[in-house]
Protein 1
Amino acid sequence: MTQTSLSFLKGHGTENDFVIVPDPDNAIELPATAVAKLCDRRAGIGGDGVLHVVRSAAHPEAKAMAGEAEWFMDYRNSDGSIAEMCGNGVRVFARYLQYAGHVEPGDLAIATRGGVKRVHLDKRGDVTVSMGRAEFPEGEVTVSVGDRSWPARNVNMGNPHAVAFVDSLDDAGTLYDAPPFSPASAYPAGVNVEFVADRGPRHVAMRVHERGSGETRSCGTGACAVAVAAIRRDGVDPAETGEQVTYTVDLPGGTLVITEYPDGRIDMTGPAVIVGSGEFDATWLAETAFV
Ligand SMILES: N[C@@H](CCC[C@H](N)C(=O)O)C(=O)O
C-alpha cells in the first residue's frame, strides 16, 4: 500500500540525531533507499539514523518480546542498513514515548534487536539505559588512519566496536572514510571504530566513525565500549574489585556517564531531546517510495 500521509519527529541524544517515524501497526516498510533519503541533510529531514516506532506485537522481529516491552525500536543507520542496537537512539525513543503520551516518566522496557532494554526516564533531561553486558571477542585487531596504526580492543555491545587509545583525538584525522582495520576478516558485518584520549582520572574523550552513518557527534554503544575498554586498561574491572565503577565519556556532541557493576551490567546516562515534529509532503512521500 502506498503511504499518502505520514508524520515524523526529530530528536537527538548528545547530538546523535534521528528521524523518528511513528508507525504503531508496522504499516510501512522502510527500504534502505527511503531511509537514506529521510536521513539526507539536504534532500530529506536529516539524521544519523531512523527510529521506526512500532508496537512489538506488530513486528515479526519483536513479537517474542511483546510480553515484556510494548514498543520496539526498529533502528536503521543513515545508509539504510540495520543495526542491532543504538544506545543514544533508545534514550531518544523513550523520550518520544513520553512526548507522545504512551508512557509516564519512570521505569519502562523497550524491545530492540539487541534484546529488551530497561530504561529510567527522568521527567526532563536525562535518561538511563541498562545496556546489558559487554563481550570481548578474542583476537588482535589494528585500526589505521593514513600511515599510522593502533591496536584496538574488540568490544561487542550487541553491535561491534573497535576501540583504539590515541594520544590526541586529532590522530583520527577527518574520519570522512571508515578507518581500515586488520585482519580484514575481523568484522564481516562491519564495525564502529572509536578513538579515545585521556582527559583525567576515569574521564576520557572519544570520536567515532559509525558503521552505516560515518562520523557522528556521539554514539551510546560506542561510549559504553570505550568505558569498558578503559576500565580494563586501567585495571579497575568491577568483576575483580567487587566495586562498581563510573567513567565520564566526552563526545563532540555532549557527555555520557557510564557505570559498570561487578556482575558486568552497564548503565548509560545522558540527555534525550525531542526537537519538533511535522508531516511529510505527500508528493515527497510518494517519490520517496515507502512501500
Ligand atoms: N549511534 C548508535 C549506534 C548505531 C548503530 C551503529 N552505527 C551500528 O551499525 O552498529 C549508538 O548511540 O549506539
Note: Residues 24 and 54 are 4 Å apart (CA to CA).
Protein 2
Amino acid sequence: MAPSPASSYPTRLIIASRESRLAMWQAEFVQASLKSCYPDCDVQILGMTTRGDQILDKTLSKVGGKGLFVKELETALEEGRADLAVHSLKDVPMVMPPGFDLACVMAREDARDAFVSPNYANLAELPQGAVVGTSSLRRESMLRAQYPHLEIQPLRGNLDTRLGKLDHGDYQAIILAAAGLKRLGLEGRIKALLPIDPFTPAAGQGALGIETLSASGIQGWLAPLNDMPTLLAVTAERMVSRQLGGSCEVPLAAYAFWDAGLLKMRAYVASVDGKTICMAKATAAVSTPTEAEALGLSVAQDLLTQGAASLLPKLK
Ligand SMILES: NCc1[nH]cc(CCC(=O)O)c1CC(=O)O
C-alpha cells in the first residue's frame, strides 16, 4: 500500500524551549516554519526554565557559562520529552556534547549590538561617569577601550528584565543584541546600532540553532529550515571561538558576513579592561562548511600569532 503523505514525515514533533519571551518567540517561529513544511504534523512547544534563567546575581562566566541555558533542554531531548531544542546560537557551546547535533541553523537576524537609552542618542553622547549596563565581557572590553570615561555595571536577566532596569533609572544606557529587540517588536527602543568595527558581535549572535539527539533521525526533516549562507558564516565564527577555548571567561568576538560573494570575517580577543586587544580579519571564497572552518582557523591562528594566548584562560 502506498504511504499516505502524512506518514512520510513525523506526525508529532515537540520543541523544547526556554520560557523567556524571546525564547518562546523563537520556538514559535520554528513551530510555524515546521508547520508550513509539514502541514499535517502536530508541532508542540515544551517550555522550561534553565539554570541560566535562575541565577541572575552573577556574571555568566562565574556560574559556568552560557551552556547553562541549554542543559535542561538537552536533558528533555535525552529523556524523550522533546524532539528538538531551539536555542539562540550564541548560547550553544562551541563543541556539541557527545550524542547531540546542531542539526540546523536558520537565517540570521541583525547580528549587531544595539545601544538603548531613554535620554541619549548614542554612546558618544554619554557624559563622564554615565553608567552603562552589560554583563558581557566582550561588550565591557569594547566599551572600556573606546569610551574609558564610562562606568560599566552588570546587567543580567531576560530582555524585559533588562529594559525594566533601564527604565527604572539604574543605568543611563544598556547594550543588547539587536536581534532580540527586533524579534520582539522592540526595535523602537534601539537608539543606535553599534558598528561591527569595533563592536564585533559574538559568534552566532542573531542566529537560531536547532539541536537534536544525533540518533533522533529527524535532522533530515529540519533541512528545509537551514540557511546555508548563515550556516557557513556561523561555522567560521564558531571555529574561531572553539580554537580560542570557546568560553565566555574572556572577551571574544567573531563575526562573518557576505560581501560580493565572499565571506568576510573579523575576530577580537582582548583583556576586560580593553587595554590589550588582538584583532584579525580575513576574506575567503567559501562554499562548504569545511572551507568555512578553514577561514575560522586562519583567523584564530592570526590572533594566536598576535599573542592572544596570553589573554586566554589556559587552553585544555
Ligand atoms: N547572552 C544571552 C543572549 N543570547 C542571545 C541573545 C540575543 C539574541 C541573539 O543573539 O540571537 C542574548 C541577549 C543579548 O545578548 O542581549
Note: Residues 33 and 225 are 7 Å apart (CA to CA).
